[in-house]
Amino acid sequence: MRVLVDTCIWSLVLRRQFKDLSVNETIVREEMRELVMDGRAQLIGPIRQEILSGIRERANFERVREYLRDFADEPVATSDHELAAKLCNECRAAGVAGSAVDFLLCALAANRNWSIFTTDRDFKRYSEVFDLSLHSAASPQRA
């Protein structure tokens, strides 16, 4: 199964030094490495933009941008945006707030039968409102 990777995972892998990672973060990083090696890690344009935003040093920006160019952006269809809005509305009705990008990830994953790899706990709350497949590393701390 393909895995749509959230910004927090990409940032952990691409913007943090290995020596600064906790045990759980090291496990997450290793899982991401496996997804990339297996060709299962997926990316969308809004996540690419989030990853690249806020990188202050030009050399680091260029390094991350060049690395990410190996990953094609999954095309986002009208039906993905429509489902994202529906999922957002369902969550709001249940008292759960989230971002437009989060719901777009959920919609893309649902429409393609993919899972989402994230450490963002908001996704766990979304999964209590609608069906959502979350990918997890072999870590005691899950999304």
Number of domains: 1
Would you identify the CATH architecture? 3-Layer(aba) Sandwich
What composes the largest sheet?
A: 4 strands, parallel
**What is the terminal separation in angstroms?**
18 Å
**Structural class given helices, strands, pairing?**
alpha/beta
Strand content: 5-15%
Number of helices: 7
Tell me roughly what share of residues is in helical segments: 40-55%
Give the CATH H-level superfamily.
Answer: 5'-nuclease
Mean pLDDT: 94
How would you describe this structure to a colleague?
This protein is of the alpha/beta class and 143 residues long. It has a single domain (3-135), classed as 5'-nuclease (Rossmann fold), CATH 3.40.50.1010. The chain has helices spanning 7-15, 23-37, 45-52, 58-68, 78-93, 100-112, 122-127, and strands spanning 3-5, 41-42, 115-117, 134-135. The chain has a 4-stranded parallel sheet with strand order 2-1-3-4. Helix 1 packs across helix 2 (23-37) and helix 1 crosses helix 3. The longest helix has 16 residues, at 78-93.
Keywords:
143 residues, alpha/beta, Rossmann fold, four-stranded parallel β-sheet, 7 helices, 4 strands, 55% helix, disordered C terminus
Provide the fold topology.
Layout: E1 3-5, H1 7-15, H2 23-37, E2 41-42, H3 45-52, H4 58-68, H5 78-93, H6 100-112, E3 115-117, H7 122-127, E4 134-135
Parallel strand pairs: 1-2, 1-3, 3-4
Summed up:
The chain is of the alpha/beta class. It contains seven helices and four strands, in the order E-H-H-E-H-H-H-H-E-H-E. It has one domain: Rossmann fold.
